[in-house]
UniProtKB/TrEMBL annotation, chains A, B:
It comes from the Bacteria. It comes from Cohaesibacter gelatinilyticus. The lineage of its organism: Bacteria, Pseudomonadati, Pseudomonadota, Alphaproteobacteria, Hyphomicrobiales. Pfam families: Ldh_2. Transmembrane segments: none annotated. This is Malate/lactate/ureidoglycolate dehydrogenase, LDH2 family. Belongs to the LDH2/MDH2 oxidoreductase family.
Amino acid sequence: MSDQIALDLEEAQELGLKVLRANGFNEAHARSIMDVIYRCQLDDCHSHGLYRLLICVNTVRAGLVDGNESVEISEPSPASIRVDAKNGYSLLAFETGLPHLIEKTKKNGVGLMAINNCFHFSALWPEVEKLSEAGLAAMAMVPSHAWVAPSGGTKGSLGTNPLAFSWPRGEKNPYTFDFATSAIARGEIELAKRAGHPLPEGAAIDEHGKPTIDPNEALKGAMLTFGGYKGSALSTMIELMAGPMIGDLTSLASLEKDGNQGGTPLHGEVIIAFDPKLLGGTDTATNTRLAEALFASISEQGARLPSQRRYAARARNLEAGTVTIPKQLHEDILVLL
Amino acid sequence: MSDQIALDLEEAQELGLKVLRANGFNEAHARSIMDVIYRCQLDDCHSHGLYRLLICVNTVRAGLVDGNESVEISEPSPASIRVDAKNGYSLLAFETGLPHLIEKTKKNGVGLMAINNCFHFSALWPEVEKLSEAGLAAMAMVPSHAWVAPSGGTKGSLGTNPLAFSWPRGEKNPYTFDFATSAIARGEIELAKRAGHPLPEGAAIDEHGKPTIDPNEALKGAMLTFGGYKGSALSTMIELMAGPMIGDLTSLASLEKDGNQGGTPLHGEVIIAFDPKLLGGTDTATNTRLAEALFASISEQGARLPSQRRYAARARNLEAGTVTIPKQLHEDILVLL
């Protein structure tokens, strides 16, 4: 007997909305959160799918996030928009700012959205993909908590600081990536600890700054960035751009504010969008041809473009009309109603 | 007896200008090229310093670049500027566009400069540093030739694709990095080949896609990106943003246009600038404090911020009032007069 259950796509969305509504989220927050949770589940990104309902509800029940907080929009400059999430989840702020960011980018060629004072738990790819659905290229960055040591260092100064990028491909799925600038995700250390597995080499150091593959030692020490000093420099750029540049916290300041508890980080997010139609000159056909030739050159030699596993899962689940989750998770979610 | 010679700072600049003027560069091109060559030499970046005079002159003498070509400015959108280098060196295009980019960024919060149809030989850090001297943060990206295999691949699809970033720090030197997204520079393979040295592990593959440390095999095969699939994704982003997004070539198209000769690549460059004063809200003091606390956290644990070696060389050379180059190089340059 399978321990999995298949939920109709609409049923999965309705279930999530009901759970969020029943647990202190107003309609606007519930819809923006469920939209991203659903997109993740549809792509079989289980760690950011329906499972997140449990975390959202627990966080609101613990009084750490207000599910009724409204957001406030302002306009720092002609090509930028600021959305103050007022210590709520980031997703309503993103959804509220999105049409303004698209409009500003299509007018100015480049546009920037700063989200401030948000709790952030979601993947960045659904956000940059939404911009590509509007025909734009986009980058997104967030800091987190300062658990990651800089290259050559021995203790945390940087967050896991993901960078996401998306490029529109017309009717095709966009070219999209979303990766942490840490060598591994924070959650992977927790998982390895619970499973009693070692970490991969080069991912963490102990409290004395020595390389370690022991998850317990890593939790007392620090994580490392991917790609040595280059990954470390990139992560520092993300701290600056998604932090002080938009009037928000670095991962160091965010961890300090949290009293080193390691709760969901409260900070900012920056999204930068570009309109290839405005910036690319008149020969759009050549631009498209060159970009597609690059993608073909990568795929045809057997190297995979990022996100292909997600897109395959999406096609499969849309075809089936269902998403599949563990029965136990389904039961845990039903309890929240 | 030393094989080095110290040149007064003014003398070095005048020498370079004379050489360029005497070899077909008009005053505007000569000044924009020499400005960057001088900045590199002042920071002891010898590979991009006075040595480059030899390459510039040889390239013009061979008729590959026109040192008299003027540049053409246009305005694709309110927050962007385009400079067509008309198959000349990129540096005059950059200098010509710079005041417009600064003005647009200080008005719009974010600004973008596309340079098209340029030959590119210079480091990117002098460019982003100039934006930080104007109080702005900036990123710059260029493609090159498709010598770099994507992660999981066996042949070149990507350029060495450097990414540079700079963050203004008031009176202090900016936080600046400039790194290739390839694991090593193309020139390092040539140097290893001439010296008969092996390459570092993980930097290249042979023509069959197998890892190699033999520079000869690497030249027949392909280079690898830094940081595995993440570096590969980042490099692809640079292809798209500094290529088709601004109506210019990818590294694949640039190599094809060059007939696989491996000459100086002809392509585009994109520079994106941000005004932290406009984007950062009212509490500038806190923004500065948080950024500086991050830099302090990195340096105080013995990890080095990028560019510190350059800045130390700059201080030393400014104090001495000289730059030091090999006597042989000085003689080779004098011959060009």
